[in-house]
Amino acid sequence: MNIKIIVAAHKKYRMPADRCYLPLHVGKKGKADLGYQGDDAGDNISEKNPYYCELTGLYWAWKNLDADYIGLAHYRRHFANRIRKMTFWKKDPFDAVLTEKEIKKLLKKSDIILPAKRHYYIENLYSHYAHTHYEEHLILTRKIIEQRTPEYLSAYDQVMEQTSGHMFNMFIMSKEKCNAYCSWLFPILEELEQQVDYTHYDPFQQRLFGRVSELLLNVWIQKNQYHYQTVPFINIEKSNLIKRIPAFLKAKFLHKNTAAVFNAQLFLRAI
Question: CB neighbours of 7 closer than 8 A, spacing ≥ 6?
Fold first, then answer.
């Protein structure tokens, strides 16, 4: 069982020790070499990283990586062992990162592993996105799905009404399912790219395609009714949730679309 989990990174950083983790320099095109595999090799969309975020890494893995299972994690956010997360994270969070042996054991039961759902409680996924970013993105995405793959429209509407979801574009799945997912996802995003004038957005809001895709992973899972397992995830760096409360209130009641508001969403997400 050959497993490769790309760890999306834009700077040099400590990486998990297990051989299944592949550090990937996302947005590498035109940048200094970090000593990692770059997402600018082979068939790639590396230049779109400011807009697609870690998805330029996913695209590279889809088109170029030879493995039985493909996954995506972040240099500061990883899949975790539930017990070790509770025990070790205050000492060394990397001690809690899921090992290759543990991943193989999980994959014997299901060929999809997702991060535990994040809960918003007082908002659904649609309203949370609309308050933090631009509702237009979701309206256009729905129209594109209706035109391209109408069989997914009901699942899209259902997911938008949910108050929780699997976020961060993180997953581990069989290459076959990864191929199917990417073949569905990227044409939708490419069409959305043609319809949204994001040239006047600030750099924070220009990352919209990476954020819309977080929701679309849930739509794809919902529509196909795939069996999956969830595991916790661990943030390698600590964050101060209390400081994010004011930004959350701006997002909810004043509709302030700023980077601080986006960070406030972590306050809403139960660990």
Answer: 15, 16, 21, 22, 23, 24, 73, 74, 75, 78
Per the structure, how many domains does the chain have? 1
Nearest CA among 152, 54, 59, 68 for reference residue 111: 68
In a domain, 254, yes or no: no
CA–CA separation, 211 and 52 (whole Å): 8
Tokens at residue 260, please?
């601080």
Q: What confidence tier does 191 reach under pLDDT thresholds 50, 70, 90?
A: very high
Record the tokens describing residue 202, joined without a space: 């600030």
Q: According to DSSP H, which parts of 38-174 are helical? A: 49-52, 55-64, 82-88, 100-107, 125-132, 135-148, 153-161
pLDDT in tens, 23-77: 999 999 999 999 999 999 999 999 999 999 999 999 999 999 999 999 999 999 9
On average, the pLDDT of the chain sits at: 91
Dihedral pair phi/psi, residue 65, rounded to 5°: -90, 130
Decide if 259 is inside a domain.
no
Give the per-residue pLDDT at 271: 32
- What's the domain range around 191? 3-238
The answer to the question of residue 51 being in a domain is yes
Within a domain: residue 54? yes
The answer, yes or no, to whether residue 82 has pLDDT greater than 50, is: yes
